Amino acid sequence: MSTVLWLASNNKKKVAELQRMLAPLDCEIRTPDQLKEPFEPVEDQPDFAGNARKKAVMLAKLARGLALGDDSGLCVDVLGGRPGVLSARYGGPELDDRGRMMRLLESLRAVPPGQRNAHFTCHLCLCGADGKVLTTVEERCEGTLLEQPSGEGGFGYDPIFVPREYGTDPTRSFANLDAANKDRVSHRGKALRALVARLPKVLRG
């Protein structure tokens, strides 16, 4: 019988990425919409680790099963690391993904290309059914921010972020990369590969 793994996210595009990268595992992937109770965590922690842990613990207890919490965000050097943990809420609740991205670009309008360094962070927290943390992973993807969006794929700030491996080439933003290349260099791809490598040992206790 395969292991059941619950993903602590209501973001359908993020869940799709997680499911794609977890496909090699012998796991039955489940999501919060399969629960009878609502899963509505308040992401009020000061860092990615705190939010990932909060989501994983909450879902593990609700589902009474193994749960993986993910908290990720974009950190911009000239903004002192903002939007950071507020990436999904940057600019206020009235904005959608594109609105947040455009608000961020506006705040960087006077910043020249050579100073638009940024990185994505992904923190993963795996909890057992009792809510005990089994393991955590945190990885980053360094890169630069474009002055205009490029590409139709991905989600969030993907159209304006170019991984360091591709310099400042606008045709190589996260939103322009195919799934395999994005997973290879992304913060979430790195974190999930590290998690997958240690998962058999973690599950054996």
What would you say this structure looks like, in words?
The chain has helices at 12-22, 48-63, 97-107, 179-185, 187-204; strands at residues 3-8, 27-30, 66-76, 117-127, 133-145, 161-163. By secondary structure, the protein is of the alpha/beta class. It has a single domain (3-204), classed as Maf protein (Alpha-Beta Complex). A 6-stranded mixed β-sheet has the order 2-1-3-4-5-6. It starts with a strand and ends with a helix.
* Average predicted local confidence, pLDDT: 93
| Global Rg | 17 Å
How many separate domains?
Answer: 1
Low-confidence stretches: none
In the CATH classification, which architecture applies? Alpha-Beta Complex
CATH class: Alpha Beta
Q: Give me the CATH fold name.
A: Maf protein
Beta-strand percentage range: 15-25%
Could you estimate the helical fraction of the residues in percent? 25-40%
Q: What's the SSE pattern?
A: EHEHEHEEEHH
What's the arrangement of strands in the largest beta sheet?
2-1-3-4-5-6
For the sheet with most strands, the description reads:
6 strands, mixed
- The number of helical segments is 5
List the helices and strands and how they pair.
Blueprint: E1 3-8, H1 12-22, E2 27-30, H2 48-63, E3 66-76, H3 97-107, E4 117-127, E5 133-145, E6 161-163, H4 179-185, H5 187-204
Parallel strand pairs: 1-2, 1-3
Antiparallel strand pairs: 3-4, 4-5, 5-6
Helix pairs in contact: 1-5, 4-5
